[in-house]
From TrEMBL:
Alphabetical list of CDD domains matching this protein: HMA
InterPro entries per UniProt: HMA_dom (IPR006121), HMA_dom_sf (IPR036163)
UniProt name for this protein: Heavy-metal-associated domain-containing protein
One MF annotation (Gene Ontology) recorded for this entry: metal ion binding
Pfam families according to UniProt: HMA
Length: 68
């Protein structure tokens, strides 16, 4: 299992945070999602078949910027 932090911009409310958390936890292989609204950091625990690229794409497709 891997744990990664994805840095994002645009998550400003608890509702947005919950929506992204629900979206990501529906992905096969994603086990834990913790979002810090203040910093925009999303800590994700996952394993195959989920990967960092597909997780970042889901966040981007939901309308949020992924920062590198």
């Amino acid at each position: 299992m891997q744990q990664k932090i994805v840095y994002t911009a645009g998550i400003e409310t608890q509702e947005q945070s919950e929506a992204i958390k629900n979206l990501l936890t529906e992905m096969i292989g994603v086990y834990q999602v913790d979002i810090d609204i203040n910093s925009g950091n999303i800590t994700i625990e996952f394993e195959t078949p989920a990967n960092l690229n597909s997780i970042e794409k889901e966040i981007y497709d939901a309308g949020y910027k992924v920062l590198y």
